[in-house]
Amino acid sequence: MSSKSRKTPTLQGPVSAAYADLAARGALSADPAQLEAAELLDGVAAGLLAEKPKGLLGRLFDKPEPVKGLYLYGEVGRGKTMLMDLFFAAVPLKQKRRVHFHEFMDEIHAGIAAFRKSPKSKSDDADPVEAVVKPIVKSGLRLLCLDEFHVHDITNAMLLYRLFDKLFANGVTLVATSNVMPDDLYKDGLNRQLFLPFIDLLKRQVTVAALPAARDYRRLKFAGQHVYAFGTGPEAKAAMDQLWLRITGGVAGEPGIVESIGREIPVPLTAMGAARFGFADLCEKPLGSRDFVRIAHHFDSIIIDGVPQMDRTKSSAAKRFILLIDNLYDRGVKLGASFAVPLEQLGKDDKTAFEFQRTVSRLDEMQSEEYLGKALRDASSTEPSLAP
């Protein structure tokens, strides 16, 4: 996209209209680069809605061309996730899916591993990639939205061409966000020349657009803010309410879900790339480190209400809280929270005393201007691989 000045566009598409509504309500300040991106997403949405859906037989034998998608790249905090939120909500299709890129690839690797253990893999013409693509095609998927498209792992790099060649051949449209342009994917990677055909394939199937927004909006949300509140009275909740509206631009939010290993984690409130949980929602339910990784990759900002003092009666909750903070910290997620007691008094269980020292140290750092000013860490450095 060009960063040159241009006439104010006619806001006719659903993404542009949703963006304009947020700007009119003061939830964001309109940015010319974001407006251009919204218009490109309008075009993808229009193409999908104009395309006549085909039945399974039609998709298998007619091999439809997918609607040209979009690959939106730019630095962190420029609004890519927010625009993807608006686009995904605006496309009234049932056959759509949005998922973090590394989660999607984990699913593909897990499917390949399962196929290789099955009797079907013994056939001479067995194709594990075809085996994992087939149920995707059978589901009727027309739109795949992938957040944070970034390739570091050689296993993913060698798989992507075969995988997406089959998805595109079956009419799946891709919309992706990334911090890097396609030509820089898997840069300096081992045997990168074998990865180049995928870049060519990708550029044929999507419009590549930069998002050179002027400001890092994520950092502005937290500038000068007190992100922690202490006590159990109404003042602590009011402080978190105020912080929530600050980071969501005044959007109240609505319930959502995070998919994790074939199940759904309820999110009480989500808006503008942020989520709000009660302590019990995360630490008094059977969630583990992998679930917290999923949550950390879905949201750039999280508020937790009502973190209690954790004595021996709350050992399990304390262990989950330690895992949660580790994952949020490793990812660089911005944290707001209300605590019943000062940080140094949180851990009162001898069983978790040593681990809690690190947690308190990280909580201290997570409220610092330095931490709040940093970008999210690359997903590939924190997400474990399921590659066989």
UniProtKB/TrEMBL annotation:
A Pfam family recorded for this sequence: AFG1_ATPase
Tell me where on the tree of life, at the top rank, the source sits: Bacteria
Keywords assigned: ATP-binding, Cell cycle, Cell division, Nucleotide-binding
Q: Does the keyword DNA-binding apply?
A: no
| Entry annotated with the keyword Lipid metabolism | no
One GO biological process term: cell division
**NCBIfam families, alphabetically?**
ZapE
Q: From the Swiss-Prot or TrEMBL record, give the protein name.
A: Cell division protein ZapE
- Naturally occurring in which organism (per UniProt): Devosia neptuniae
